[in-house]
Amino acid sequence: MNRKNFPALLCALLIVSLLHVLVYAAVRLLQHEALEAPPARAAEEAAYRLARGTDPKDLLPPADPQRFASGLLSTFVLDASGRVLAADARVGTRTIPVPAGLLDHARRNGIKKVTWHPWPGLRKALVIRYLPAGDRFVAVAGPYDDTPNPNFIWFLCASWLGCGALLSGYALWSGRRSRIPAPSLSK
User: Fold this and answer.
1) pLDDT tens for residues 90-148?
2) 20 to 30 A Cα–Cα from 80, which one of 7, 63, 163, 187?
3) Which of 3.30.1360.70, 3.40.50.300, 3.20.20.410, 3.30.450.20 is the CATH number of 38-143?
4) Are strands 74-78 and 84-87 parallel, antiparallel or unpaired?
5) pTM for the full model?
6) Can you name the residues that pair with 122 across neighbouring β-strands?
7) Transmembrane region positions (predicted)?
8) How does the average pLDDT of the chain come out, rounded?
9) Short-list 73, 80, 87, 75, CA closest to 106
């Protein structure tokens, strides 16, 4: 490899590395958005139904004590003070409370999307929607498992190594080619 090609090779490897990091970040962001989509749609539907006069208890599915810990959506309807009017998120007979600070943020901004840890080992995507007409909140919690797909990580690593190998091979080949004397145009 020609020493003149080394800085260009390092620059190209840095650019390829940066592009791979950006791809990883974009995929993780899309995965995060996809995990928030079902609770957001359910919160929007519940808010629409409440605005049309539906009783909060009619929004809830049949009682299931394991619903909150499972991968199903859980719905909360809260009044302005954060008191639960209806909820299907229970542990035994106790309703799981929604953190009050999140309600304040939702009241100011209309909606709040967070990753919620109600207890260690359980993560939920929580979407809280404020309904100013009735001064109530609708909160929907859904499953949240943002563990990156190992196949994607292996693919990204293999792609990065392949690009590095191609760039290194090209640098070696172009450096070798530059040692071949150019044909002379003079007679």
Assistant:
1) 766 777 778 878 888 888 888 888 888 877 877 888 888 888 877 888 988 888 887 88
2) 63
3) 3.30.450.20
4) antiparallel
5) 0.69
6) 119
7) 152-173
8) 81
9) 80
Distance CA 141, CA 146 (A): 15
Give the SS3 label for residue 54. Answer: coil
Nearest to 6 by CA among 168, 184, 173: 168
Q: Are 171 and 5 a contacting pair, CB within 8 Å?
A: yes
- Judged against a pLDDT cut of 70, whether residue 177 lies above it is answered with no
122-131 vs 111-119, strand pairing mode: antiparallel
User: Is the pLDDT assigned to residue 1 strictly greater than 60?
Assistant: no
Task: Give the DSSP letter string of 124-187.
Answer: EEEEEEEETTTTEEEEEEEE---PPPHHHHHHHHHHHHHHHHHHHHHHHHHHHHTTSPPPP---
Per-domain residue ranges for the chain? 38-143
What tokens does 167 get?
């760039």
